[in-house]
Specification:
Length: about 240
């Protein structure tokens, strides 16, 4: 299954007025980006993938000349339906959770990633969104792997919106898979201090291996300050 990928950085204008590609800043290598699964999307430049975060991250990396290429993956349709039948459940929410947590789905997704890798990808570091695939195992000993997260399975299970009645076996499969991925990852980037503590306390990842980088904003341009608006008053903004 093939998904769109963009590689070429946009041009910038140098001091003499000629266009030249932007160079990486603070990186010794460019990054090969990976996103995938039905949970967060499988097109790195889709504005809907991972609530829009994927588009913003990979676009900024591309524009700064830090991106080698980015691609998305999902299990082939026939394989997907076979796996879904293996985890069938009368409750559709539980069925969905069991499917995405299962070792069989995540192993299948990892194989798809392996099939999409190209020889020159290993000349660069890898940057992965989420842990639905074991990219660190695929690149171990050849490249470094970094990942970015807005959550993990242990934290999602604590949510009041997670359905009750999930299989303890499926949960253990999912948590164990994620732990193996995190243990091999060179550096885990997270959105909050709360989440950083979860990786350390719930998965046993050394504190030095997890860094808080925040969430950023999903805007193409920062809005201009309104000259007539007061910014010194106390106001409450609620988003639900």
């Amino acid at each position: 299954m093939s998904y769109r990928e963009l590689t070429a950085p946009r041009a910038m204008v140098s001091e003499n007025g000629t266009a030249e590609p932007q160079r990486p800043r603070g990186l010794s290598k460019r990054l090969t980006g990976i996103i995938g699964s039905g949970m967060i999307g499988y097109d790195p430049f889709d504005r809907m993938a991972w609530s829009g975060i994927s588009y913003q991250i990979f676009s900024r990396l591309r524009d700064q000349g830090c991106l080698h290429r980015a691609f998305g993956v999902e299990v082939a349709r026939l394989r997907k339906w076979l796996l879904m039948l293996r985890h069938v459940h009368p409750n559709r929410r539980i069925w969905r959770e069991h499917y995405y947590m299962s070792q069989s789905y995540r192993d299948s997704l990892t194989r798809v990633v392996g099939q999409r890798l190209q020889p020159d990808d290993f000349d660069h570091d890898f940057f992965v969104l989420g842990a639905a695939y074991d990219v660190p195992r695929l690149v171990e000993g050849r490249s470094r792997c970094f990942s970015y997260h807005d959550g993990n399975l242990v934290q999602s299970l604590k949510s009041p919106y997670t359905p009750t009645g999930l299989s303890a076996k499926r949960i253990e499969e999912g948590v164990s898979f994620e732990r193996r991925v995190y243990e091999r990852t060179d550096r885990i980037l997270v959105m909050s201090e709360y989440l950083r503590r979860s990786f350390v306390e719930d998965y046993g990842i050394p504190a030095s291996g997890v860094a808080v980088v925040g969430a950023g904003i999903n805007l193409d341009e920062i809005p201009q300050v309104l000259p007539d608006k007061r910014y010194d008053t106390k106001q409450i903004l609620f988003i639900a």
